[in-house]
Amino acid sequence: MNRVYESLNEKGIFIFDCKPTNSFKNKERYLEEKDFTFEWVCNTKNAPFVIIDINTTFKDGTKFNERHIERGYSVDELKQIIQSTKFELLEIYDTCELKEPNNESDLIQFVLKK
């Protein structure tokens, strides 16, 4: 955050988003198509870290698997981080809408000003 702050013009705006830890389970998917199947599974047992396994199997038997490890944040955690910087917190939004986030939010946007 401090490096972003230093790289912004005076009165510059920094907008970023994050996924709350509890939103990862909402992202799980299984899709069966003509030529492939796709499975996205989230393991939240080690919250706030989440292990995401993405498995794709093609009709010819070819498999493609990848694993991501992401960290989720709560709004309160990010507010605390922001307060430790020189940024001014302007707004917090829920999933690209002009409303406050809640426990069901899948994505949270923060608007900060230098």
Short note summarizing the structure:
The chain is mainly beta and 114 residues long. Helix content is 13%, strand content 44%.
Written account of the structure:
The structure is a single chain. By secondary structure, the protein is mostly beta strands. The chain folds into two domains: 1-20 and 73-114, no CATH class; 23-72, Single Sheet (N-terminal domain of TfIIb), CATH 2.20.25. Helices cover 13% and strands 44% of the residues. It contains two helices and seven strands; from the N terminus they run αβββββαββ. It has helices at 2-7, 75-83; strands at 13-18, 29-32, 36-43, 49-58, 63-71, 88-94, 108-113. The strands form two sheets. The protein has a four-stranded antiparallel sheet, with no helix packed on it. It has a three-stranded antiparallel sheet with strand order 1-7-6, covered by helices on one side. A hairpin with a 5-residue loop joins β3 and β4. The longest helix is centred in the last third of the chain and has 9 residues, at 75-83. The protein is elongated. The mean pLDDT is 90.
